[in-house]
Amino acid sequence: MDGLIRKIIIGQDPKNGMAYFVGMRAGDGNISAIIQDDSYLHKFGKCRYLVYTESSKGTDLWKAIDDMPCLLEFDLDF
Hints:
Layout: E1 4-10, E2 18-21, E3 25-26, E4 29-36, H1 38-44, E5 48-55, E6 58-66, E7 70-75
Antiparallel strand pairs: 1-2, 1-7, 3-4, 4-5, 5-6
């Protein structure tokens, strides 16, 4: 997938969905990246997005969003 994902909204209705965005506070750190898991797509034919956090302890996988309706917002350089 081309482009960096800046924000993901999970759910059937974006107005009522759960939203995560790069820079958002999560636990002891902030969301540092949202990526599409291409190996999961290749192996199972389903979309999965991985949400990573970064803190003083390092970078950790925080959430995996498997085969859910999602709205993606990409980080564009205007």
